[in-house]
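Researcher: We plan to redesign the surface later, but first we want a full-length starting point. Tokens attached.
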């Protein structure tokens, strides 16, 4: 087996230099022998990188960082790096460890321990290797840039070599563990996840900028509100100064919630704790709890969103994308999935001068993925037929709830009929929630939290009955899921369609969700790869554009304004083509909009057959 492992050392990362130049390269060959190459002799360094890129399997740990550093330092190697990723010859031991944890059913996105997916921890835990000695030299390599190996200390040489050796050994260890404890066929999609990490690292490298004036205005408004609410919190003992910072008395808030709702109310989390989330506090109708809800929301924006915006305004904000159990990815620092729509937080983000954002969202992606799964599992899907006929699945639910013809519902929707609007909203929540095995209490909570709709248990049960009647595949699908899990409190292992990725210890709801969520995630990853390749291909309409955000089912791309129309059409084309590889029997739709800022609500604007930037009313 021709497997080599590589690792580089670089100067420290800074806000304006996310991928520094290469200081040295360590290469562990297929026999476990490690060589170290310095950056003084750039010719030899280049030759070794060029040789490494020809191997059948090239392993690294979080190696997208290494390869981007290499690509920026040696641009002539970029085509070969892209070719290695295209041919799925690059493997990443960090992603493999995450996939192993997902398959075993104990995966936590951030790790159950600090640095759990870092090489130092895994080398110690899995191999018994200590990578960090008493003299921690990790932060010193910047001084060795362009210097010969003769100037390295023994500690610098040992640390650099051990990284490559540990990566090589960890790769072998992972293969053995996965075949013994998960699937004797071995990893199914680890190379694809390594390729996803490459795309995600480029998005992080580009980052997102913000308008300093809008950020300053947001800071003024949010801090004014924060200061206005804080005295009441201190007066009632909700927050207090402790050990150099303010802390929140969660137990006191929980006691107030219990007193407001009464002992018989269902106000506990899955772990049995009293809820203190914004919805619970607001729905209590208790004046102080409602004020606490406002304070918690504002404090979170001050501590998270404002910090992220100020960084984006000063240089750029570089989110980190990590794998979720479903196969989806989540951006953190900042969490782009949960950027508040209130207070103008999102509006502060803007592209570089001369550029615009192309915001392209899949239409009803999880519905389409679920319809595809039902086709494979059951052999039919009425929802799939509906979507392929370009009909509105949420409107179909509305018309069933109102017991009127579809044509009448469509006409009344066009006239902004409030009854149809409300029923369609309820139908949308049913369509996106119930196929995941959601129960009545959770569905009621979903409608209230996301739509501001209050449903009684009787009404929610009726909506669920209508949903099953509208989509006849629903009941058999959920019954099969129930049979797979085997009863309340039990779990099962799910093998994902197409990618064969495995997720272990899935309960009923996780099993119901992971089939279609994972399928949609895999299609997103493949589309992302196609888009990233297009941005690096001269002559492509997306060439020199930048993917700066992947949020739920949408791509946010920064593009030159003078060719934004062509780039938007190409983005939509690749999103549909990539997803169709994983969802081949259901029509895929992705409609782009062009904006000058990142906006929550924006419409397509067409002039003379070209898509133009949406201009919101100030």
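Model: Full-length starting sequence:
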């Amino acid at each position: 087996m021709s497997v080599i492992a590589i690792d580089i050392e670089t100067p420290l990362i800074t806000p304006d230099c996310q991928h520094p130049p290469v200081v040295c390269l360590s290469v562990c060959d297929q026999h476990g022998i490690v060589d170290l190459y310095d950056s003084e002799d750039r010719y030899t360094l280049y030759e070794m990188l060029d040789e490494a890129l020809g191997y059948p399997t090239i392993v690294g740990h979080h190696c997208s960082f290494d390869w981007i550093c290499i690509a920026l330092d040696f641009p002539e190697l970029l085509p070969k790096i892209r070719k290695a990723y295209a041919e799925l010859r690059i493997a990443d031991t960090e992603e493999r460890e995450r996939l192993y944890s997902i398959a075993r059913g104990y995966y936590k996105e951030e790790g159950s321990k600090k640095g759990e997916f870092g090489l130092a921890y895994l080398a110690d835990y899995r191999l018994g290797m200590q990578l960090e000695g008493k003299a921690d030299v990790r932060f010193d390599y910047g001084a060795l840039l362009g210097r010969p190996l003769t100037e390295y200390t023994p500690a610098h040489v040992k640390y650099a070599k051990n990284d490559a050796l540990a990566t090589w050994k960890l790769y072998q260890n992972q293969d053995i563990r996965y075949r013994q404890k998960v699937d004797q066929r071995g990893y199914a999609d680890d190379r694809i996840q390594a390729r996803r990490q490459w795309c995600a690292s480029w998005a992080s490298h580009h980052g997102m900028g913000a308008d300093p004036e809008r950020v300053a205005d947001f800071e003024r408004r949010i801090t004014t509100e924060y200061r206005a609410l804080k005295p009441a919190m201190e007066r009632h003992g909700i927050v207090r100064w402790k050990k150099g910072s303010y802390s929140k008395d969660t137990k006191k808030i929980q006691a107030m919630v219990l007193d407001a709702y009464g002992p018989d109310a269902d106000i506990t989390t899955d772990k049995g704790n009293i809820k203190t989330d914004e919805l619970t506090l607001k729905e209590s109708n208790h004046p102080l709890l409602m004020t606490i809800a406002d304070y918690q929301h504002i404090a979170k924006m001050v501590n998270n969103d404002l910090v992220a915006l100020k960084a984006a305004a000063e240089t750029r904000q570089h989110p980190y994308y990590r794998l979720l159990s479903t196969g989806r990815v989540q951006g953190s620092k900042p969490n782009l999935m949960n950027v508040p729509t209130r207070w103008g937080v999102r509006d502060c983000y803007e592209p570089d001068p001369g550029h615009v954002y192309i915001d392209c969202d899949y239409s009803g992606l999880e519905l389409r993925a679920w319809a595809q799964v039902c086709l494979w599992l059951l052999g039919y899907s009425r929802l799939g037929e509906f979507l392929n006929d370009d009909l509105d699945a949420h409107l179909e639910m509305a018309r069933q709830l109102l017991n009127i013809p579809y044509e009448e519902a469509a006409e009344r929707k066009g006239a902004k009929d409030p009854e149809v609007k409300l029923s369609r909203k309820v139908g949308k929540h049913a369509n996106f929630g119930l196929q995941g095995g959601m129960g009545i209490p959770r569905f009621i909570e979903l409608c209230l939290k996301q739509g501001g709709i209050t449903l009684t248990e009787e009404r929610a049960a009726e909506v669920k009955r209508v949903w099953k009647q509208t989509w006849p595949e629903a009941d058999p699908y959920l019954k099969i899921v129930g049979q797979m899990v085997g009863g309340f409190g039990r779990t099962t292992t799910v093998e994902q369609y197409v990618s064969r990725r495995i997720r272990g210890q899935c309960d009923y709801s996780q099993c119901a969700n992971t089939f279609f969520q994972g399928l949609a995630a895999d299609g997103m990853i493949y589309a992302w790869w196609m888009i990233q390749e297009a941005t690096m291909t001269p002559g492509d309409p997306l060439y020199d554009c930048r993917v700066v955000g992947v949020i739920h089912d949408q791509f946010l791309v920064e593009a030159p304004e003078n060719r934004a129309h062509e780039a938007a059409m190409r983005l939509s084309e690749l999103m549909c083509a990539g997803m169709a590889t994983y969802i081949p029997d259901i029509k895929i739709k992705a409609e782009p909009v062009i904006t000058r800022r990142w906006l929550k609500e924006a419409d397509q604007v067409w002039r003379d057959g070209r898509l133009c930037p949406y201009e919101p009313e100030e």
